[in-house]
Amino acid sequence: MEHKAAENRQEARQGAAQGKAGASPAAKSGRGARKGRRRKSWRARHPWLWRLALALAAVIAAVLGSLVLFRFVNPPVTSVMIMEKASGETLKRRWVPIEKMSPHLRLAVIASEDGNFCTHQGVDWGAVREVIESAKNLEPARGASTIPMQVGKNLYLWEFRSYLRKALEVPLAYAIVSLWPKKRVLEVYLNIAQFGPGLFGVEAASRHYFRKPASALTQREAVLLVTTLPKPLVRNPARPSRTHKLVANAVQRRLPYIAKRADCILNP
Question: Which residues, 6 or more positions from 68, have their beta carbon under 8 angstroms from its beta carbon?
């Protein structure tokens, strides 16, 4: 009797093991189906999040695609130009290659706008830290903006300052410097920057204010022109105010120092 009972117990264990082994593929299939249903149900429960993610991916792809294109093709219009046009201004613009810009102009804009242009990779974090340390309030400061950041802002963003705009400028600047050489960055910037109401680019600005092409600008004229950039709707390089002259004098004194570290733009 005991021997037979032991045999029965062994058979029961073998049957249970076979049952588990037989049920394992079905169990696995059931778990996979449940996971698939959970994935589907997440999209069904959060359709707007899914659409937002798709829209964001499409925007990023469009921006990166346009940056690749603008490496070789001149941007036909920018967001700042569109806003100026919408406000009723007549746009004045004339594209000129960097080779036809005065060397004084190229150097002056580096000295005025972005002294470390040739060395940083889109964002000058040293300047950012200095601005944060010296800031007396929480407003974003213009002093931390590099030329690549301003190119990104002019091409795709808006004029009024905000934390959101500054946050978007950073990845745009890194993408621009990754996809374009520095000479192209400077060429695009000097052709799309605003120098007055409806006035864009150094060629149109030079002819408007000094009645000469950008290639013929003197050092002083170049400095006065680029120091218009922080306040293009207020400053006039042909008739500079006392404050404008002081700013231009400070930039002009920096030119010899900046020339020592501006090889990336002085010999295009």
Answer: 179
pLDDT by residue, tens only, the chain of 268 residues: 545 555 555 555 555 555 545 545 555 555 555 555 555 666 777 778 888 888 999 999 999 999 999 999 999 999 999 999 999 999 999 999 999 999 999 999 999 999 999 999 999 887 777 766 655 555 545 557 899 999 999 999 988 888 899 899 999 999 999 999 999 999 999 999 999 999 999 999 999 999 999 999 999 999 999 999 989 999 999 999 999 999 999 999 999 999 998 888 876 5
Give bridge partners of residue 199 from the DSSP assignment. 92, 196
Q: How far is CA 242 from the centre of its chain?
A: 34
Rounded Cα gap, residues 73 and 71, in angstroms: 6
Residue reference for tokens 């778990």: 31
Listed in order, strand segments (DSSP E) in the chain are 92-93, 194-196, 199-200
Question: 76: which DSSP letter?
Answer: S
Alpha carbon separation from 243 to 174, 212, 227, 246, 249 (Å, rounded): 33, 25, 11, 5, 10
In sequence order, what are the residues at sequence separation of 6 or more whose Cβ sits closer than 8 angstroms to the Cβ of residue 215? 96, 100, 101, 102
Residue 204 contacts residue 94 (beta carbons within 8 Å): yes
CA angle 33, 34, 37 (to 5 degrees): 90
161, 150 Cβ separation under 8 angstroms: no
Q: Which amino acid is at 145?
A: S
